[in-house]
Amino acid sequence: MNAQTNDVRIELNGRSLTLHEVVRLARPAQEGPTPTVVLHPEAVAAAERSVRLRDRLIAERKPIYGVTTGFGDSVTNQISPERAAHLQRNLIRYHLNGVGPDAEADVIRATLLIRANALARGNSGIRPLVIERLLQHLAADILPRVPERGSLGASGDLVPLCYVASVLLGEGDAYFGKKIVPASEAQREMGILPTVLEAKEGLALINGTSFTTAFAVLAAHDAASIAQAAEIVTAFIGEALLGNASHYADFVHEAKPHPGQLASAAELRRMTADSGLSTTYEEILGATDPLQDDHRELEQRIQEHYSLRCAPHVIGVLRDTLTWVGQWLTTEVNASTDNPLFSVDEERVHHGGNFYAGHVAQAMDSLKVATAGVADLLDRQLALVVDPKFNAGLPANLVPPSLSAEAGLHHGFKGMQIAASAVTAEALKTAAPASVFSRSTEAHNQDKVSMGTIAARDARTVNELTGQVAAIALLAGAQAIDLRGRENAAPSVRRIHELIRSRVPFTDGDRRMEADIATVRELILDGSLARAAGSPTD
Length: 538
What we know:
Fumarase C, Chain A, domain 2
C-alpha cells in the first residue's frame, strides 16, 4: 500500500515517500502544518518478520557481517551470538568522531525521516520499536547534534548517523527547544525512553545514505527556486536593457525541444508579455530604414548577448537536471540503503553494497554544475546592466541622474557587481565534482567510495552562492527599471518590482547594501518572488 498523505498524516512503508513530504517535514515553518508520521501496519509486520529471521540465523551461529562478525576489514573476526548486542553499542561509539559545523535542523529532520523510511521496508533486521523511536524524536523535534564532516558516502554515512543512533541510546547532545541539551534530558522531558539495541540494530541505523540524501533532497528543492529566480532576473534585466524578446519565440525552442529549455522560454515569454520596454526583431526592422549604401552601423542590435539570448538554454539545463535528479532521489529515499539485508521470502541474508551513495553523488555533482552555470549567467547579465557601453542608455553603475551635481562622488552598483563576480567565482570553483575524489580507506576494504556527502553539501553551498548572485542582480534590475520607467514594464515585471520596493528602497546614493541582498534572497527562498511573477511554486 502506498504512503497516505493528507493535512495531518504520513504512513511510512519504505516505498512511496515523496521528496515534497521530506521537505515539508524538514522545514515545517516554510511548508505549512507538520504531518504526523507513523509506520504503516504493513511496515511493522515486515520489520517483525525480518527480526524473526535475524534471530533464527544468529541462533544457528552463522557468520553474518556486522552482526556476528567485526566491521569492515575486521569481517574475519566472528563472535558468539551472546556478544552480538554489545558489538552494536561499540559500533556506535567508535564512529563518534565527526568534525566541522553542526548540520542544520532541516537536514537532521530529513535524515530522521529518510532513515526511518529506509528501515520501514523491512529488510534490515531492526525492530519496529527502534524505527518508531526515530519518529518520536522527529515528532518531538529532538534533533541530534551531528557534525557535517566525516562521511565518505560509503559505507553509508557511518560517522554522522552514529550521532543519530547515539541520541536514541540517550547519549550525546541534541538540539531541543532552541537549546543544546543532553539527549537524555530531552527524552525525559518528552517521555521517550532510551533505546537498548539488539543485534544488527546499530548497523541498521548507521549503514545507509540517509544523511547524504537529506542534504541532496533539500538542495534539489532549493535549486528549483533558483531556476525560477534566474528566469525572473532575465526578464527583469532584459526589460531594463530594452532587450529583444524574440529570442524566446516558440519556433526557436520547439526546434530544439529539450523540456527544460521549452519551459524556461515559455516563462520568459509570459513574463515579458505586454511590455513597453522589451522589443522584437520586427519592431527593430520597422524602426530601421532600408540599407542605401554598402555599409552602415545599425542603431540597435538585432540580437542580444548570449547571457540574454541563450538564457533558456542555460536555465533549461538546470530544469532538466532537476527532473532526473528528482527521479534518482525518489528512488534513494525509498530504498534499503543497508548491509546486510534479510530476505524473509528466501529465508536468507544477503551481503551487498546498497550503502553506496553513487547515484546521489553523481546527481549532486551534476546539479551543482548546472546551478553554478546559472550563477555565471546572472553575473554576466548584471555586468551588462551596470555598464554604459552595453546598457542602452542607462547611467554608469545605475547612479541616478539626480546625483549629477555630485558627479564622481557616487558609484552606485559598482561594488555590487564586484561582489557578485567574487561570489560567482566561488560557486564555479565549488562546482568541481566530488565523486572523482574517491580514495581507498579502512585497510582497503572501502577501496572505492562515493564522496556523496561532500557532493551534496557542496550543492547546498552552490545554491547559497547562486541565490546571492540572483539577489544582487534583482536589486540591480529593480534600480534599472526605476531609471527606465516602471510604468512601461511588462505586468509581471511591475509586480516583481513592487515586491522588491516594498522591502528595499531605491538606491539614491552610495550606502550599505548587504541587508538588501539578504532581504531579496529571502524573497527567493520563501517563494514570494515566484508568486509575484506568477510562476508555479510547487
